[in-house]
Amino acid sequence: MRAVKEAVHVSTAPSTVVCREDEQKMVLDFCKACVQQEKAGSLYVCGCPGTGKSLSMELVKQQVIDWAKMEGLQPPEVLAMNCTSLANTSVIFSKILGMHQPKKKSIGSASPLQHLQNLYSNKQAQSSSKMMLIIADELDYLITRDRAVLHDLFMLTTFPFSRCILIGIANSIDLADRFLPRLQSLNCKPMVVTFRAYSKDQILSILQERLLVLPYIVFHQQALELCARKVAAASGDMRKALSVCRSAVEILEAELRESASNTGLTSAEGDFVSPQTALAHEVFPSQENNTVRIDHMALALSKTFRSPIVDTIQSLPQHQQIILCSAVKYFRGGKKDTTVGELNKSYIDICKSALIPPVGILEFSSMCRVLNDQGLFKLGQSRDDKFKRVTLKVDEADISFALQVQIHHYCTDNILSARVIIVSYRYPFIWNREFVCLGIVFSNTALLDMWAVSNLQLSCSIHDLKV
C-alpha cells in the first residue's frame, strides 16, 4: 500500500499539471515576451488553495529556462522563494540584491532596496546583466501596515533599466486592487492570472492521472467519482481530494489488517498462516482483494467533511427531514424560492408517496420556523404564514449525504455467503433511486463487480431492505 499512498500524497509532484494548461501557457507566454524583449514585467497569480498555482509555477520556471536555451537566448537567473520562510518582510530585497551581486557586500548606509533602485536606474550597470525571474509564493505574507514592502517590490519592475520578471502568488483574488492602488495610477498594475477551483471532472482526471503510475487498479471508478463530486462541491481543493483518497486507502488497509488478525487461514498444504503473512498475501499479490470501494471513500469523506450542517440534518425529526427533501425536489427546476403554502403541497405529495401521514398546515409552518432558526431555511416576512417566502440555505449535496444510510446486510444460500454493501436513501423518491449497491463481499473477501448483485440468487431481496 506504500506505493498507493505515495501516488496520492500531496508532496508527490507530477511531471505535468493536468487541467492547468491554459493558465500555464498564459504565464509562460508572459515570461517569454519579457525575456525576448529584455523587458521587466510583473504578474500576479491568484486562486483558492489547492488549485495548482505553486506547482504550475515550478513547471513554468523550468519551461522558461529550457525555451531560452532552445532559442539561443540567455536563460534568466531564477530566484524562487516562499515568503513565509523570510525572517522579516524586507529580507526579500537582500535576496534579490544577492542574486545580482553574489560576492559584493553592502557598503555604506544604503539599504538593499536602495541599492536595487540605483542598480535599475543605471543603464551601464545593467547592460550586460541577465534577466532575473523572481517567483514569490505566499505573497500576502509581505503585506505590512503601510504596504510599503509589497509596493516597493512591484515597483522594481517599473525602473527604466530593470531586468526583473516578478511573479507573485497568493490566494487573494483582489490583492492587487486592495494593496497596490498606486501601481494602477502609474499604469503599472501587474497582469493577473486566476486559477479557478477545480471542477468534478478536473479532480477526477487528475486523480486518474496520478494513479496511472500503479500497475494495478486501486480505486473503483465510482469511489473516485464520489470523491471528485464531494470535493468539487465543497472547495475544489485538489490537496483535499488527495487527502481523502489517502484516508480511504488507510481505511482499507485497517480493514485488511483486522481481517487478517481475526481470521485463521491455511495454506494450500494445510499449514496455518499467521495474520502477518495473511495480510502481506492479501495486500500485495492479490490486488483484487484490496481495492478502495465506494464505502471506504464515503467513510473517508465523512471524516474529512463532517460538518455541523450534516449533523443537524441527521438529528432532525422525520417530518422536518421530509420538508427539507420537499424543498430540494421543488427547487431542482431552477426556482430560487417559493411560499410556505406551495412547499406544503410538495411535502404532502411526498408523504403520500411514502405512506406517511402529513402534519397540518399550522404544524408545518411551525416546523419551517424551526428550520429557519437552525439556518437551513430562510423565511421571508408576511402576516399569513402560507405566503412567507422560503429559500433553501444548504446545498442539496449536504442533504443527500446526511440522509443516506449504509447497510451491511448479510445473507446466505446453499452456494455462498456474502455481505451486500448498500447505501439506501431514507426518502428514495426524492433522489430518483432507492439504493446504490456498493459491492458484494464474499466470505473469501473477493469483491465482485459492483453491479453484479442482480445476477445472484440471494436468499433475500434487496428491495425488502428497509431503513
From TrEMBL:
InterPro entries from the UniProt entry: AAA_22, Cdc6/18, Cdc6_C, Cdc6_ORC1-like_ATPase_lid, ORC1/CDC6, P-loop_NTPase, WH-like_DNA-bd_sf, WH_DNA-bd_sf
GO BP terms, alphabetized: cell division; DNA replication initiation; mitotic DNA replication checkpoint signaling
SMART domains linked: Cdc6_C
A Pfam family that the UniProt record links to this protein: Cdc6-ORC-like_ATPase_lid
Chain ranges of the Cdc6 C-terminal domain: 324-403
Record's subcellular location: Nucleus
Molecular functions per Gene Ontology: ATP hydrolysis activity; DNA replication origin binding
Keywords (A to Z) from UniProt: Cell cycle, Cell division, DNA replication, Nucleus
Keyword Transcription regulation included in the entry's annotation: no
GO cellular component entries: nucleus
Family: Belongs to the CDC6/cdc18 family.
Protein name in the entry: Cell division control protein
Organism encoding this protein: Gossypium harknessii
